[in-house]
Design brief:
It contains 13 helices and 12 strands. The radius of gyration is 20 Å and the shape is globular. It has a 10-stranded mixed beta sheet, with helices on both faces. A two-stranded antiparallel ribbon has the order 2-3. Helix 7 crosses helix 13. It has about 400 residues and is of the alpha/beta class. The protein folds into 2 domains: about 230 residues, 3-Layer(aba) Sandwich (Peroxisomal Thiolase, Chain A, domain 1), CATH 3.40.47; about 150 residues, 3-Layer(aba) Sandwich (Peroxisomal Thiolase, Chain A, domain 1).
């Protein structure tokens, strides 16, 4: 594939308001998973989450939005991260280049909508009808930033923003756009917390990805965006390149509505096809940012998929969801940003909270920060409900 360059990053998560703060937390093994502060739920003292420690009003101030009350929390997070990515990339939207945005969300504006679930009256806030749907935050970003060439919204559960990255790369490769802002956003909501609790896959303590005694995931919230550009776009602006999108793939194991197949079929296929599209061998991967939710099913299935490809000699891998919680539609983009930061800072992040390795596997994740490590290629997995499995491969800008 022709080179797809990454020239800008933006992120807000439970471990930081921007790229610098997120990187500092990752290098200090500082998790953002805590007791619930802002989300109004009967489970407030029952579960821990990766919640961003700002009210919507405070997020509105950070985003520079005057009418914060008219925006969902999902949109406010998206605005903050998208603005950082665009500023980081130093985009000039008046330079004649075709610019698009593809963003992802699973929850959309549910944080506003659910407040009116028990009431038939909408007179006090008709706005929730407009902010409910998943694409609302994309329209808000387009209006704020002045993006007119192309916009799209993707919602494929927890692989959503990985698929946004993939589709953005395809649009550039096909010649339809010169650059694309890609990523995703999701806010915590009662709807999400109750739903995952019903599935009985939440841990009421800190999640333990790839631990033999793992009990489930911690939900999180956040947003992240990357600016992808064509070779021609980069040459025209002569800007700094952070990394390259080397390959990608999406596969489906068609096994279950929410569970991954025990054989890891979809995950194996996604990784194999991504490696093939990157035109590299599997042993060229320096670090794997696993999906690693901490649920019994996911970690067993993903571990089996890693074993299918590598046997017992799996490259260094870890789950960063032990830092941020599982941010659903934003997870793929957040972890893609972490992947670029790993490449640019020669780091491999630790898998926090691990005490006992999964007995059936002879390999285990990295549990302490590795510094001064040549990280040339990172493989990042994002697996969603319905078996929607996506893998992105990011490489050093050489």
């Amino acid at each position: 594939m022709s080179n797809i360059y990454i020239t800008g990053l933006g992120i807000i998560s439970a471990i930081g308001d921007n790229c610098v703060e997120n990187l500092n937390s990752l290098t200090q093994s500082k998790s953002g998973i805590k007791t619930i502060k802002h989300l109004q739920t009967i489970h407030k003292n029952e579960f821990v989450v990766g919640e961003i420690s700002y009210s919507n009003k405070e997020l509105g101030e950070i985003a520079g939005v005057n009418d914060y009350a008219k925006q969902s929390r999902t949109a406010l997070l998206a605005i903050i991260a998208a603005k950082e990515a665009v500023k980081h990339s130093n985009i000039d939207l008046n330079d004649g280049l075709r610019t698009g945005i593809i963003s992802a969300s699973t929850v959309g504006g549910m944080d506003i909508t659910e407040n009116y679930y028990t009431s038939e009256s909408t007179q006090d806030n008709n706005n929730f009808i407009l902010t409910h749907y998943a694409s609302n935050h994309v329209e808000v970003i387009c209006d704020l930033l002045g993006i007119n060439d192309f916009s799209a919204t993707i919602s494929t559960a927890c692989s959503s923003s990985a698929n946004a990255i993939m589709n953005g790369a395809r649009l550039i490769k096909s010649g339809r756009l010169d650059r694309v802002i890609v990523g995703g956003t999701d806010a915590l909501s009662k709807f999400t917390l109750n739903g995952f609790n019903t599935l009985m896959i939440l841990d009421n303590e800190l999640c333990k990805p790839f631990d033999e005694n793992r009990k489930g995931l911690n939900l999180g919230e956040g947003a992240a965006y990357l600016v992808l550009e064509s070779e021609e776009s980069v040459k025209k602006s002569n800007k700094k390149v952070l990394a390259k999108v080397l390959g990608y793939a999406n596969a489906n194991d068609a096994y279950h509505q929410t569970a991954s197949s025990p054989e890891g079929n979809g995950a194996t296929l996604a990784m194999k096809q991504a490696i093939k599209s990157a035109n590299i061998s599997a042993n060229k991967i320096s670090y794997i940012n696993v999906h690693g939710t901490g649920t019994p099913n996911n970690d067993d299935s993903e571990g089996t998929a890693l074993q299918n490809i590598y046997g017992d000699n799996v490259p260094a891998f870890s789950s960063t969801k032990s830092f941020t919680g599982h941010t659903l539609g934003a997870a793929g983009a957040i972890e893609a940003v972490f992947s670029v930061l790993a490449i640019n800072n020669n780091l491999i992040y630790p898998n926090l909270n691990l005490k006992n390795n999964i007995e059936k596997f002879k390999f285990k994740p990295v549990t302490k920060l590795i510094e001064n490590k040549d990280v040339d290629v990172v493989l990042s997995n994002s697996f969603g409900f319905g078996g929607n499995n996506s893998t992105i491969i990011i490489g050093k800008a050489k």
